[in-house]
Amino acid sequence: MENGYRKSVFVVVYRKTDKGIKYLILKRKLHWSGWEFPKGGINDNEEIINAVKRELKEETGQIPLSIQKHNFLGKYLYKKEFQDRGKIIGQTFSLYSAEVKNSEIVLDGREHSEYLWLSYPEAHKKLKYGNQKKCLEIVNCFFEQISKFRSFRTASGKLVLAGKDAKNNEELISQIETEENVFHTAKPGSPFVNIKLSKNETASQNDIKDSAIFCAAKSRDWRDNKSDVKVNWFKGKDILKIKGMKIGTFEVKNKKDILIKKQEVERFLKENVN
User: Fold this and answer.
1) End-of-domain residue from the set 105, 140, 175
2) Does residue 159 share a domain with residue 87?
3) What band does 108 get if pLDDT is binned at 50, 70 and 90?
4) Rg of the chain over all Cα atoms, to the nearest angstrom
5) Parallel, antiparallel or unpaired: strands 112-118 and 193-195
6) 61 and 165, same structural domain?
7) pLDDT by residue (tens digit) across 34-90?
8) Among 13, 147, 239, 274, which is least packed, fewest CB within 10 Å?
9) Is residue 37 exposed (0-12), middle (13-18) or buried (19+ Cβ within 10 Å)?
């Protein structure tokens, strides 16, 4: 707690359906009445990602398939004093989204009485407070952005995007931050691939390897040769667009080589059939 504010997480929970993304909202009955999404305080010495997982389990009974951090922080005062919160006068929060598989939710009956799975417009209309509406807007815009590209997640859960064609590669490059990791095969004919990182996040060597394998698996080099593929790895700041270059092509400096073995691509394709 800092200056009377409890540190907390807001978690926009969603699942993918044949009719698009559905968002989970819960009907609050403790302290106030109205609709919200899962949220809760961070315990002393608790890692924030563990707080997200714990709150999801406590409030929904769900274990997330993936968790995404979003670059949004907020702060609010309680509208009245609560005896069970001592000297706490409000909360600061950081925003996360979490995908779950099952639609059946196990509520914490002390805090919530009902739940709904709703489309974005429906959920936005139901939410009671402006800061929660803003969080839902940010998450929904994020999904609209990434839906333009191919995507997968590394073993650690990092989101990876890839272009679908030359024009789409241009769009992908335009949204890459300067310190984000980018990949392209040494030979022509692959999508540009980008690990998406939130502020202060870093990609591990395993994330980098997973992303390079993804790049190799989607390349012309692999399609034509079915053998080892050399992938270039660089940062967003190392990508240059020189006047006269074709759509979807770029100049790259400070690139490093990663050799992806045939067996690694075959294993990736077997495990990621889509």
Assistant:
1) 140
2) no
3) confident
4) 21
5) unpaired
6) no
7) 899 998 888 888 999 999 999 999 999 999 998 998 988 887 676 666 555 556 667
8) 274
9) buried
Tell me the C-alpha distance between 221 and 232, whole Å.
Answer: 13
The C-alpha atoms of residue 82 and residue 89 are separated, in whole angstroms, by 9
Q: Where are the alpha helices (DSSP H) in 61-186?
A: 120-126, 130-146, 166-174
- Cα(42)–Cα(3) distance, integer angstroms: 15
129 and 225 share one domain: no
CB 230, CB 186: distance < 8 Å:
yes
- Other beta carbons less than 10 A from residue 17's beta carbon: 11
Of the candidates 219, 242, 251, 236, which has an alpha carbon nearest to the alpha carbon of residue 174?
A: 236
- 172 with 259, same domain: the answer is yes
Closest to 200 measured CA to CA, from 113, 104, 94, 105 = 94
Looking at the structure, tell me whether residues 32 and 81 fall in a common domain.
yes
Domain range holding 79?
Answer: 5-140
* Domain match, 104 and 181 both: no
Q: For residues 153 and 161, what is the distance between their CA atoms, to the nearest angstrom?
A: 9
Single out the residue of 182, 253, 239 nearest to residue 212, CA to CA: 182
Does one domain contain both 114 and 240? Answer: no
Query: For residues 128 and 36, what is the distance between their CA atoms, to the nearest angstrom?
Result: 7
Unique residue bearing structure tokens 């395993």? 206
